[in-house]
Specification:
- The chain is α+β, with helices and mostly antiparallel strands and about 70 residues long.
- It has one domain.
- Helices cover about 40% and strands about 15% of the residues.
- Strands 1-3-2 form a 3-stranded antiparallel sheet.
- Strand 2 and strand 3 form a beta hairpin.
- The mean pLDDT is about 90.
- This is Transcriptional regulator, AlpA family.
- It comes from Sphingomonas guangdongensis.
- InterPro entries: AlpA, Prophage_regulatory_activator.
Length: about 70
């Protein structure tokens, strides 16, 4: 998904990240530890969110499923 340079960045929380990627929470955190998934931004003592652009770029970087 190519983004316009003037498109404002938006933060998304874990439920939306899971919906966009189709991954479970445990898979997201495991892949982050392995360096294969974008890291979230800290919003407060107990709150994090991801940049939607980072998630979209990660999705776009995934290889296409054969036959799909």
């Amino acid at each position: 998904m190519a983004k316009d340079a003037h498109t404002p960045t938006r933060l998304i929380r874990l439920p939306e990240v899971k919906l966009r990627t189709g991954l479970a929470r445990s898979s997201i955190y495991r892949m982050m530890e392995e360096g294969g998934f974008p890291r979230p931004r800290k919003l407060g003592p107990r709150a994090i969110a991801w940049l939607v652009n980072d998630i979209d770029q990660w999705i776009d970087s995934r290889p296409a499923k054969p036959g799909g």
